[in-house]
Amino acid sequence: MIHPIISGNKWRKLKEYIGLAQINTSNSIISFGGAYSNHLYALAYVGNQFNIKTKGIIRGNELTINSNSYLKQMSEWGMDLHFLDRESYRKKIIPVEIAKENVIVIPEGGFSKVGVSGLESFKNELNEQIKADYIIMAVGTGTTAIGISKFLKIKTIGILTLQNLNEIENNCQEFELEDLLEINANYIFGKYAKGSQVLNEFCDTFYKKHQILIEPTYTGRMFYGLYDLIKNNYFPKNSKLIALHTGGIKLSD
């Protein structure tokens, strides 16, 4: 509900970087993502709106600008796209031709201390509306979950969406979270973004009942996990829960 394109947690993770780029207008912003990256999509739009040069490093050298509507739209918004083979992408290699420029590098998914700091303003927004015992959200890189835990000091349950538990645990070590963040890896459904009839049916049923759109990669997994945890009496009786919908977009090619 923040914005139709820079939705959910995307703006919160980007806004501090945008401020840095506006201080020094010679800077461009580089970040990483897959062929359907919501993070890069939001960054490309922000760059277009704020007249900031952006560059996207895409996983998969078999891809082109015209491979899907995400990539095509990002290019039309002015993002300079560079396609890397998967090994180079895994190492997060920045192509030589752009590495020498004045750049601000945003890690994949926005994870960094700068990205986490963008979640601080959420504390007042949330506390003005509801006092919760638990917050439940989907976890990709852990940026949002770490920020929520750090600034709100509320027990946070992160529903993991891909097989990167070690990465999340390492990311958490950079912050003093005590026991505020718990990562649940029971609802990955095998592989990140892998199709699942169970998840698709759950998302459809959820929308019909609540008129709230969710998708099977992130928010669908989170709500599925939340329903299952409630059913299995994970939360103490009379607990007040917040399910944080972190956004996401739906485009058809």
Describe what you observe in this structure.
The chain is α/β, with parallel strands linked by helices. It folds into two domains: 102 residues, 3-Layer(aba) Sandwich (Rossmann fold); 125 residues, 3-Layer(aba) Sandwich (Rossmann fold), CATH 3.40.50. 40% of the residues lie in helices and 16% in strands. Helix 9 links the parallel strand 6 and strand 7. The longest helix has 15 residues. The model has no long low-confidence stretch (mean pLDDT 90).
Features:
single chain; 253 residues; alpha/beta; Rossmann fold; four-stranded parallel β-sheet; 11 helices; 8 strands; 40% helix; globular
Oligomer: single chain
> In this structure, how is the largest beta sheet organized?
4 strands, parallel
- CATH class of the largest domain equals Alpha Beta
Rg, nearest Å: 18 Å
- Total helical segments: 11
Number of strands: 8
Ends apart, CA distance between termini: 23 Å
Blueprint of the fold:
Elements: H1 9-23, E1 28-33, H2 38-50, E2 53-59, H3 69-76, E3 80-84, H4 86-90, H5 96-99, E4 103-106, H6 113-117, H7 122-127, E5 134-139, H8 143-152, E6 155-160, H9 165-172, E7 181-184, H10 197-210, H11 219-231, E8 241-243
Parallel strand pairs: 1-2, 1-4, 2-3, 5-6, 5-8, 6-7
Describe what is shown at a glance.
This protein is an alpha/beta fold.
